[in-house]
Amino acid sequence: xxxxxxxxxxxxxxxxxxxxxxxxxxxxVAAVYSQPDRPAGRGQEVRPNPVAAWARAAGLHLxxxxxxxxxxxxxxxxxxxxxxxxxxxxQLLKEDFLSATRLGFVNFHGSLLPALRGATPVEGxxxxxxxxxxxxxxxxxxxxxxxxxxxxxxxxxxxxEGRAELRARLxxxxxxxxxxxxxxxxxxxxxxxxxxEAKATYARRLTRADAPLDFRQSGVVLxxxxxxxxxxxxxxxxHLGATVKVGAARVDAEVRGAPGTILSVGRDGIAxxxxxxxxxxxxxxxxxxxxxxxxxxxxxxxLAVGEVLASADMPAFVADRPFxxxxxx
Length: 329
Prior knowledge:
By secondary structure, this protein is α/β, with parallel strands linked by helices. It has 2 domains: 3-202, Rossmann fold (3-Layer(aba) Sandwich), CATH 3.40.50; 213-300, Roll (Methionyl-tRNA Fmet Formyltransferase, Chain A, domain 2), CATH 3.10.25.10. The protein contains 8 helices and 18 strands.
């Protein structure tokens, strides 16, 4: 008799793991749980998320509860699932839901646990300057990303690698890990090892308030931040009442100046003095415009040498203890 899976995810990073789960021998997918369709884009058209769109295209049974309730746990129990497979779902799983499958739930997490538990492990690794990261397969328990580990796979982080590229690579790695590790989980032969609690760190959910840059920080820290927040919420600075977005930047550790001072402007970038060194802004976007290379940006939005850009406090989003829960931005 085939083993029955339920898949829970909403983000594109989960697609390779879910496709690999579906391809396992003697496995069938009883249902896919995903976030409801929501308005997206400038036109605010209601669209499915990538996992929901994939499930519909594959003809899988798709369930999209706004919030998991007792009735959803009862429905899951009726599906007679052997195992739940989670990656980037976006909802907490309560005890009645976790106990509604024969083998519980496993979760693919985008870090080498116990490092970077929480909502933004990819961004946390980039912002903290990690040399490597990976994907962990953990048994889900009621504590945040604290369940025992079935398996993990490691990868080096490239020196200029940004959020989009790293997320795409981790998604592929999760697919390989699913093919390798899930058969033993389904067979009941995988022995999960406890995490080292003393080494746990946490990465909180991002908000729009994380976008402004603090030029009092070092150029190295800011370049990492730009790569980590690529896309949304992005990295920004204020200039004459306008919010300018920084799409890419590099560091010049030798340059000195008062933090926030524009030291040079040119086709190759805009040098802004930092607490240590300078941040060379190489791609920028003005309000209502497109993200452009520095030279093209300057032709339509001039910045002058000697201008001083304001700094804003940059709240940390990686810590050695859990962050208080905050409302979604």
